[in-house]
Write a structure and sequence with these properties.
The protein is an all-alpha fold. The chain has helices at residues 21-46, 49-54. The longest helix has 26 residues, at 21-46.
Length: 55
């Protein structure tokens, strides 16, 4: 299955050697943190200027 270059969906690799599972878990955690960061940035930039100053 092909992924979009900008996809933040968790990686799913089956079968995966047991030794690589920690690497996959860490990569998926990173993708999740990036997604949350992008969402926070979108919310911040969507606020009216006065709302940002009050925060």
């Amino acid at each position: 299955m092909r992924r979009s270059a900008d996809s933040l969906e968790p990686l799913q690799v089956q079968p995966l050697p047991r030794e690589l599972q920690p690497l996959l878990d860490t990569q998926n955690q990173l993708l999740q943190r990036i997604g949350k960061t992008i969402e926070r940035e979108r919310r911040l930039t969507a606020m009216p200027p006065m709302s940002c100053a009050a925060r």
